[in-house]
Design brief:
It is a single chain. With 493 residues, this protein is an alpha/beta fold. The chain starts with a helix and ends in a 7-residue tail after the last helix. The protein has a domain of 181 residues: D-Maltodextrin-Binding Protein, domain 2 (3-Layer(aba) Sandwich), CATH 3.40.190.10. 42% of the residues are buried. It is globular. It has 21 helices and eleven strands. Strand 1, helix 2 and strand 2 form a beta-alpha-beta unit. The strands form three sheets. Strands 1, 2, 3, 6, 10 and 11 form a six-stranded mixed sheet that branches. It has a three-stranded antiparallel sheet with strand order 8-7-9. The chain has a two-stranded antiparallel ribbon with strand order 4-5.
Length: 493
């Protein structure tokens, strides 16, 4: 058996050598690797980049490209493991910067970004730009963004004679309009088949934020899920599902087969089929709707219902340069391409989220109302407007490296009757804070920084208790930085 393994290993080694030699001779110029998957969209984006290189003169005397990009597939966790072990591709896609940057695996690009139009402060602004930053330095650039709201099937509201909700509304509005909608939509049916909205437990965070609370404190040193705002938000969402029955339970949401694959799981097909009046999504939903046979219905895009402070969660797909890359100059050109008109036009046409550089969308009639798709309504314009005004990323702590969602965990506990909202949120908070303590204790490079941040948090708490303004530079949490600025609670800007 051992001899067999040795023979196989030798054969594999020979085959690898032949492959390497063949590729080396076939490609006179280097290839850089982008770990972004092999979807048709990514293939099209690579082809567009090659065209951009050619158009900008990055060719040799024979007209051949000086380098090319090759796609590879890996998941987020595998990419991190590869990077730590020195085996990552030159460009890493889907990068959560605050998880990767503290590991020392990403190339800092602050100066390059500022000089080449990739500075987030002059694009989507400071709040969205936080997705690209760690420790005051930039490590990535956007491939696309999303600020999700509620997409309405206006034809369905007209069918049941219900006035659709306005762009901004409250939880009380949601319940009032929702009860009318499900009553009229299910009249004469033996059981409820039509729901006001698809599942959206992600609404719990914006609901709590609308009352001034966030998952982490100002310095990201501790979770704060026991804040009364989270209790109220979780109870409210639970009521929408189980008391008012405006939103399907998990069992109800999966009871109807989906029409193929969807960027929103079962939600998009159910919106198109007339089973949901609205779903939580962004303009990327058109990547599904445009291929559905019944996808041509009138749309409207409204904000999530909230109490006081209007906010939505902005997310992004980011690409960063691997610190160990041997082709950093070429990789920088790819990031420059992401901010260029050619790439942004591609994202605009495909509706693959928001383009990384908003200047190519603002005032662009083909973005606001794509030709022949007037029925898509205000979807495009509203998402861009909200991203530039009320969009705020989820806060991520450098001391909490896990990518899980403890709010979803808490709701699942309540939904399963395993805990009250207060108990579930307390358990979630304790789990996060235990992980933070364990991470800091086991990571020498974080310990001094963490102690200083905790002392800063005590200073912030004393100022808040005294009703004093807080220096903007003390706030690391992107939600509180924007919330306090909007409320005039910062000592400087």
């Amino acid at each position: 058996m051992r001899r067999c393994f040795i023979i196989i290993a030798l054969l594999l080694g020979i085959a690898s050598g032949i492959t390497f030699y063949t590729q080396k001779n076939h490609h006179a110029h280097p290839q850089i690797v982008w770990t972004a998957g092999l979807s048709p969209d990514r293939v099209e984006q690579v082809e567009a980049f090659h065209g951009w290189l050619r158009a900008n003169g990055y060719v040799d005397k024979d007209g051949e490209l000086l380098f090319t990009v090759r796609l590879e597939t890996t998941d987020n966790q595998s990419a991190l493991i590869q990077a730590v072990s020195g085996m990552a591709g030159d460009l890493i896609d889907h990068v959560p910067v605050k998880r990767f940057a503290p590991m020392g695996v990403l190339e800092e690009i602050t100066g390059f970004a500022r000089e080449n139009g990739l500075d987030p402060a002059v694009g989507y602004g400071e709040a969205a730009g936080d997705l690209l930053m760690y420790g005051g330095k930039q490590y990535a650039y956007f491939c696309n963004l999303a600020t999700r709201g509620l997409l309405l099937n206006l034809d369905l509201f007209e069918k049941y004679g219900v006035e659709p909700p306005p762009e901004e509304w409250t939880p009380a509005d949601f319940e009032r309009i929702g009860r009318e909608f499900v009553r009229k939509a299910n009249a004469g049916r033996p059981r409820q088949e039509v729901f006001f909205s698809g599942a959206m437990p992600q609404a719990i965070l914006p609901l709590a934020r609308s009352l001034g609370a966030d998952v982490f404190n100002e310095t990201l040193t501790a979770a704060t899920l026991t804040d009364p705002a989270f209790v109220r938000a979780l109870e409210t969402y639970y009521g929408w599902v189980y008391r008012h029955h405006l939103i399907p339970t998990a069992a109800e949401a999966t009871s109807t087969e989906s029409e193929g694959t969807s960027v929103n799981s079962e939600a998009t097909p159910q919106l198109a089929a007339g089973r949901y009046g609205m779903i939580l999504t962004g303009r990327y939903v058109n990547m599904d709707l445009r291929r559905f046979r019944n996808g041509r219905f009138r749309l409207a895009f409204v904000q999530l219902p909230e109490w006081e402070y209007k906010n939505l969660v902005t997310t992004s797909r980011n690409t960063a340069i691997y610190k160990g890359s041997k082709h950093k100059e070429q990789a920088r050109l790819f990031l420059k391409f992401l901010a260029a008109k050619e790439y942004n036009d591609l994202i605009i046409r495909s509706s693959d989220g928001l383009p990384p550089n908003p200047e190519w969308a603002e005032g662009n009639s083909e973005f606001r109302t794509p030709p022949g798709r007037e029925f898509e309504g205000d979807l495009h314009d509203n998402e861009l407007k909200w991203t530039l005004s009320i969009g705020i990323p989820e806060s991520q702590s450098p001391y909490y490296p896990l990518g899980d969602n403890k709010l979803s965990y808490a709701f699942a506990k309540v939904e399963s009757k395993l805990a009250s909202p207060e108990e579930a949120l307390k358990q979630a908070e304790e789990a996060i804070n235990y992980s933070i303590r364990s991470t800091v204790e086991g990571t020498a490079s974080l310990q001094e920084e963490y102690r200083a941040a905790c002392e800063r948090q005590r200073q912030i708490d004393r100022r808040k208790a005294a009703g004093e303004k807080i220096p903007a530079g003390w706030i690391r949490n992107p939600f509180y930085r924007k919330f306090y600025r909007d409320r005039g609670m910062l000592a400087d800007h």
